[in-house]
Structures are given as structure tokens and as C-alpha cells.
Amino acid sequence: MKSQEFSIRGRIRSFRFAWEGIASFFLTEHNAWLHFMATVAVFTLSALAGVTKNELLALVFAIGFVWVSEMFNTCIERVMDFVSEQRHPDIKFIKDLASGAVLVAALTAVAVGAIIFIPKLF
Ligand SMILES: Nc1ncnc2c1ncn2[C@@H]1O[C@H](COP(=O)(O)OP(=O)(O)OP(=O)(O)O)[C@@H](O)[C@H]1O
Known about the structure:
Elements: H1 8-28, H2 30-49, H3 53-83, H4 89-121
Helix pairs in contact: 1-2, 2-3, 3-4
Bound molecules: adenosine-5'-triphosphate.
């Protein structure tokens, strides 16, 4: 790969593409809106329940983990659909594994939320 000289303009351009990626994620994926609503709900509950700084850090990481895994899952689904429109057991394996990773992230976030909120609410 050709090495490019560092330029502020180039970095700003890459940053703009990254924002375009996030915007496309919201425009094309229903799951993005579900995650957005869950994120708003968690931060509203955090404000109402009065979480500590460390608890907030754990929640931010758990939520970020879910967002990142969902975005990579979407990338993998798109790549697989681009590679082949035919049904293939390898594509099933790859897509199911990527979905499984999102589930692991979501269950982790639920566990973090339960550890933090259950003692505060009950
Ligand atoms: N080309 C394929 N070959 C074999 N199985 C496939 C193929 N495409 C999809 N599948 C199976 O169907 C499931 C759903 O695939 P699809 O691409 O529709 O994801 P999705 O339902 O849109 O997922 P999400 O809700 O995470 O966006 C996959 O997890 C996989 O089990």
C-alpha cells in the first residue's frame, strides 16, 4: 500500500467518512434506533437513580461495546451479502457468529446494568 504524507486535511476527510458511516448506520439499520432508545433509557435511569462516577464509566463502556459490536455485525452482514447472494453454510456460520458476538455484548451490558441498578431500585 502506498504510504501517504500526514495532512490535517486528510485526517479531517477520514473523520468525515467515519461520521458518514455512523449516519448510514442510523439510516439503514433498525437496530441502531433500538440501541439509541436503550442508550437514552439507561442514561435517563442513571440520572434518576444517581449512579457513581465508576458506575457511569462501566455503563458507558458496556453501551459502547454493544454499539461497536452491532456496527461490526452490520459490516460483516453487508460484506457477506456482497460476496455472494447464494445461500452457503459458511456464510450462515459467519453471520450467525457475528450476531452471536452482538448477543454476548448485549448480555454483558444487561449484566452490568443489573449489577448497578438492582440494588438501587429494590
Ligand atoms: N447467504 C446465506 N447463506 C446461508 N445463511 C444465510 C445467508 N444469509 C443469511 N443467512 C442466515 O439468515 C440469518 C439472517 O441473515 P440476514 O442477513 O437476514 O440478517 P438479519 O436478519 O438482517 O440480521 P440483523 O437482524 O442482525 O440485521 C443469518 O444469521 C444466517 O443464519
